[in-house]
C-alpha cells in the first residue's frame, strides 16, 4: 500500500495540509516529528521536542532517529498521509524509501516561511555561525532541487488549506487513472 508523503521545508504547512488531506481521504495522518518525540520519550524516559533532541544529542543523532522512524512508518500496511520533517529528503536512505510512495512537495512563499520559522526562534538546524536569514536561504536552495526531484507533484500552499487539499486530491485522481 502506498503512503501519501508531503515533503517540503519547515513551516510550509505540511502538517496542516496533511491533516486536512487525511480527513478528506479518510486516511490516518502521521506527523513524523511527533512520532520521533514519542519514540524518544519511550527510549529515554523523558519528553523532548525535536529541537531539544537536536540540541541535546546533535543533528546526526536526530537524523538517525528520523530515518529509523520513517522506515518503520513506511512499513505499515495501512496507507497513511505522512508529513516528515523538512530535512528527511536529504538522506539517500530516505530518498530510496520515499520512491515507493506518492510524494507531494508542499511549498510556500519563501519570505513567509522564514517569518514563520523565526517566530519560535532560530531552529536547531540553522548553523550557529551564520546569520539566520543567510543560513535559511542557503539551506532552502540546497533542499529545493531534492524536493523537486523526489516529488510527483508540487503544490503551493499560499492560499487556504482547502485549496491545497483540492489540488492534491486532483493530482491523486489523475495518478490513479494512469
From TrEMBL:
Residues the entry annotates as binding ATP: 11-16, 122
Keywords associated with the record: Amino-acid biosynthesis, Aromatic amino acid biosynthesis, ATP-binding, Cytoplasm, Kinase, Magnesium, Metal-binding, Nucleotide-binding, Transferase
SUPFAM superfamilies assigned to the protein according to its UniProt record, in alphabetical order: P-loop containing nucleoside triphosphate hydrolases
Reactions that this protein is recorded to catalyse: shikimate + ATP = 3-phosphoshikimate + ADP + H(+)
GO MF terms, alphabetically ordered: ATP binding; magnesium ion binding; shikimate kinase activity
GO CC list: cytosol
Pathway assignment: Metabolic intermediate biosynthesis; chorismate biosynthesis; chorismate from D-erythrose 4-phosphate and phosphoenolpyruvate: step 5/7
Superkingdom field: Bacteria
Self-association and partners: Monomer.
Name the record gives this protein: Shikimate kinase
UniProt organism field: Candidatus Magasanikbacteria bacterium CG_4_10_14_0_2_um_filter_37_12
Amino acid at each position: 500500500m502506498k503512503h501519501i508523503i508531503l515533503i517540503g521545508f519547515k513551516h510550509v504547512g505540511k502538517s496542516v495540509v496533511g491533516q486536512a488531506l487525511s480527513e478528506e481521504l479518510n486516511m490516518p495522518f502521521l506527523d513524523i516529528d511527533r512520532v520521533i518525540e514519542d519514540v524518544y520519550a519511550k527510549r529515554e524516559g523523558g519528553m523532548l521536542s525535536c529541537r531539544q533532541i537536536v540540541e541535546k544529542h546533535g543533528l546526526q543523532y536526530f537524523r538517525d532517529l528520523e530515518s529509523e522512524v520513517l522506515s518503520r512508518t513506511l512499513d505499515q500496511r495501512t496507507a497513511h498521509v505522512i508529513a516528515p520533517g523538512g530535512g528527511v529528503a536529504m538522506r539517500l536512505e530516505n530518498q530510496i524509501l520515499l520512491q515507493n510512495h506518492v510524494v507531494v512537495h508542499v511549498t510556500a512563499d519563501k519570505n513567509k516561511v522564514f517569518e514563520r520559522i523565526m517566530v519560535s526562534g532560530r531552529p536547531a538546524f540553522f548553523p550557529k555561525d551564520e546569520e539566520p536569514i543567510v543560513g535559511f536561504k542557503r539551506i532552502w536552495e540546497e533542499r529545493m532541487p531534492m524536493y523537486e526531484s523526489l516529488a510527483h507533484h508540487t503544490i503551493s500552499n499560499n492560499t487556504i488549506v482547502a485549496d491545497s487539499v483540492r489540488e492534491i486530491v486532483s493530482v491523486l485522481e489523475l495518478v490513479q487513472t494512469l
